[in-house]
């Protein structure tokens, strides 16, 4: 209610006024009708009859207009609530410092329900609350009328609604539990449907003929979802059918009694019309009251998920008053760092000790799965170490302001994202303060060696880098975007990482794996310039590009097994020397083991 009140206060006030009117209008109509009939069946005073008929017509006209006004107010309230609810939800999600929640299926299920219930819940509570108010007023008004005519009629009609309320509330609990239970299936169904229409996936799916396998699985998920809905719908059908029969039987008995009373003269013809209108209206209003109460109940049960996400605390501990992050002076230290992704998973890092000096370049080498990217994620505080600590000039990262820390670090990952946005936006995501600063954007693109490519695009830096959307809002304009090559995308990701002029720590995790030899050489020369005078960490399987690092560490099975300069490590003739000579042999046929 608070969310809806914040989003659309005036619309809700108008909606409330109309609901009160709509709740009392049937009562006014029934009484006016009774009075008209009684006037017509007694000595007729035409002026009275015309006055009453005019009032009846006026109320009738207003009643005809109200549903249209309510429909508009309801839709407008829903639109406004949607804006506020979605903004609050995604702002809350954006506040998560780390990645853990995005890898937790239970949390992702909850997030999905939160989105659906956050969008529709507040509107349903307002609609349900006002609908229930309206129905309540109708019930109270007519119950008073029925009490005047025969107290037991009022009591019978009201009691007949009891079982309906109990049954509907039990059904609503079941429905809310079912929505939570099918969350996984719904997410999987969305995953398959997104995959089957994804331009990146289309290539492999067509070549490997894997489409039918995936859409059959998608249809399987839809069947699971349908089964769950069907079970509840059938239960609802039987329960509501039975209750409708009960209501009809009660109404029939009351009608018989009323007609009999009119024949014996204890009720007037107008009274008969009033009882018929009252019983019908009370039953309809009670059904609507129960329906609205149940809708509100269910919306609130599901809205719990929305509140749980919006009010969830940080996923990584953040001090109440976190320390500011000063420029890096001495270096970043990993002190006896142990890490595993979950308690039931194996250790990925086992007692790593490493200092990245504030003005030096450190390189990490290791086989696939050795833990290199994990180490980078800990440095960026996307996770906290399970044991040990990462220290920024001696201060634990957990003590520092995470936002300020992120502004001092820039990283280029091997799996950098290609955003379906313009070239300018793709680079500006690295530091959004530069989005309207073409000089900074171009400088970053030049550093990454991608300026010439972007400059020649049809709309230069404003060219859309995707073909899944039109370039502008005008769908009649046939211009769509441009698709870059893998290496060009990688250079764009490097530009994004280099947009911030002087990060304290620059991390490059396999930044050039998709570049041709010439581009790689050129980009690494520029990167060397950019890294000068600040802490940098390089991760690469191409050992040639790491030769000039001040310190190279070899990570194996989560431990540092060798450390030193390139020359030291070659002389030591250990794991690094073995990997290096294997690669070198691939390029020089003269080296033993090389290509013939
Ligand atoms: N999010 C995650 N959840 C669980 N396990 C993970 C996750 N990310 C990585 N791992 C596991 O951690 C181990 C180390 O992975 P990591 O990505 O750090 O290796 P890497 O040295 O960077 O490998 P590569 O050279 O292939 O990029 C692997 O066994 C991997 O399966």
Descriptors:
single chain; four-stranded antiparallel sheet; Rossmann fold; six-stranded mixed sheet; 596 residues; 61% helix; binds adenosine-5'-triphosphate; alpha/beta; ABC transporter transmembrane region fold; 3 domains
Plain-language structure description:
The protein has helices at residues 2-7, 9-41, 46-94, 105-149, 151-160, 162-181, 183-196, 199-208, 211-264, 269-310, 372-379, 402-407, 423-428, 438-447, 451-455, 486-498, 517-531, 566-572, 575-587, and strands at 331-339, 349-357, 361-365, 387-392, 395-396, 409-412, 505-509, 535-539, 551-556, 559-564. It folds into 3 domains: 2-310, ABC transporter type 1, transmembrane domain (ABC transporter transmembrane region fold, Up-down Bundle), CATH 1.20.1560.10; 326-408 and 505-591, P-loop containing nucleotide triphosphate hydrolases (Rossmann fold); 416-502, Rossmann fold (3-Layer(aba) Sandwich). The protein contains 19 helices and 10 strands. It has 596 residues and is an alpha/beta fold. The model has no long low-confidence stretch (mean pLDDT 86). The relative contact order is 0.08. The protein is elongated, with a radius of gyration of 35 Å. The strands form 2 sheets. The chain has a 6-stranded mixed β-sheet with strand order 6-7-8-3-9-10, sandwiched between helices. Strands 2-1-4-5 form a 4-stranded antiparallel β-sheet, covered by helices on one side. Residues 103, 341, 345, 348, 366, 368-374 line the site of adenosine-5'-triphosphate (ATP). Adenosine-5'-triphosphate binds at residues 103, 341, 345, 348, 366, 368-374.
